Amino acid sequence: MNYKASNKLQDLQYFGEYGGVNPSISDSSTYTFLSAKTMFDTFEGNTEGCYLYSRHSSPSNLYLGEALAALEGTETANVTASGMGAITAVILQLCDANDHLVSSRTIYGGTYAFMKNFLKRFNIGTSFVDITNLTAVEKAITPKTKMIYCEGVSNPLLEVADIKALSKLAKKFGIPLVVDNTFSPLTIAPGKLGADIIIHSLTKFINGTSDCVAGAVCGTKDFCLALKDVNNGAGMLLGSTLDSLRAASILKNMRTLHIRMKKHGENALYLAENFQKDGLRVVYPGLKSHPGHRVLKDQMNPEYGYGGLMTLDVGSLDRANALMEMLQDKKLGYLAVSLGFYKTLFSAPGTSTSSEILIEEQKAMGLGDGLIRFSIGLDNDIHRTYCTMKDCMVQLGILVSSTTVV
Ligand code: PLP
């Protein structure tokens, strides 16, 4: 895997109106046309180079879209008001009533709820499968299936999708492979591995400052234009549009993504390796013990590391809650959902971000109620963090001595 996304991002140059080093922000919802004919043509779909209304597109959103296309190596990208805005638009663009999709069973709880509950209104069924079992994925495909959907590294169980193999399968059946790459920007470039559409919640690592909600769809020009079509585009008609001011601030944050991803990954690997030595039930795709380690190693850009997400199973919800509260008291992070912040964030997904998934289903996929998901921060002294976390676990009886798990 050798796609140099950070070089592509670095080479993008936009100047502001007066030669500023940042592009000017388009502070307008609507745009003037020099002739009535151009306005008519634009509404007929000849939108190249024209702005008509900011729900359709705006210069600031297009700049951010170009940066995301460079990140993923796709022809283009559309930005949206949230990750869910991207996911729902893609699914509704590709599926008609009575269609079907095959999805990984371990995905973000909101995506799962949308597929399982909301799509019922249109009689669109979803088969949730173990995405690492290619036979099960293939078996689930029917003549009505309109896509295979997965996350590059899954929320919250950190399963790794074999994108090359899934793409081969999708191509065999003539359907697109849609990959949510929110957990692994830069680490994986799914488009370069054969994925057709790549989705991001920009809310997370890409923005990195936990101050906004945004999303993106990266893909072909045809697909992204179809999403914006004034008559039939799910992006345009469902109206999940990102505000230009936010697009501009996300673009500025994206410039440090490569540095942040390396540090998140370095810190997470340090903690995971040491917690594993301590005998804790830690899951991190950078550990050789992780079932998806080899697949990730084969398909990743190694310079960015294995990502900032790690899970620890401490056996029960009570223990998980006590540990998270103590870690917050010790200023090691925040008991909060979401990810990609400079500070470590932790939550128990079974009762938060994956609570939409029924308890029996959580159990079947290996999501125990003692599981804590950590988005490891940019701590400068990760050894100090490790020692303090370990002290907390000893105090709570999760570790009896420095290396024995209860
Ligand atoms: N995809 C993944 C993997 C997520 O974790 C989330 C949110 O947690 C989303 C999508 C949804 O993104 P947003 O909250 O920006 O709508």
Task: Give your account of this protein's structure.
The protein is an alpha/beta fold and 406 residues long. It folds into 2 domains: 2-254, Aspartate Aminotransferase, domain 2 (3-Layer(aba) Sandwich), CATH 3.40.640; 257-405, Alpha-Beta Complex (Aspartate Aminotransferase, domain 1), CATH 3.90.1150.10. The chain is 37% helix and 14% strand. It has helices spanning 5-11, 36-43, 59-72, 83-94, 109-116, 134-140, 163-172, 221-227, 234-238, 244-254, 257-277, 293-299, 317-329, 359-364, 382-395, and strands spanning 76-80, 100-104, 125-129, 145-151, 177-180, 197-201, 215-219, 281-283, 309-313, 333-335, 344-347, 371-375. The strands form 2 sheets. A 7-stranded mixed sheet has the order 1-7-6-5-4-2-3, sandwiched between helices. A 5-stranded mixed sheet has the order 8-9-12-11-10, covered by helices on one side. Helix 5 (109-116) links the parallel strand 2 (100-104) and strand 3 (125-129). Helix 11 packs across helix 15 (382-395). The longest helix is centred in the middle third of the chain and has 21 residues, at 257-277. It is globular and about 80 Å long. The relative contact order is 0.13. The mean pLDDT is 94. Residues 82-84, 108, 110-111, 151, 155, 180, 182-183, 201, 203, 213, 215, 353 line the site of pyridoxal-5'-phosphate (PLP).
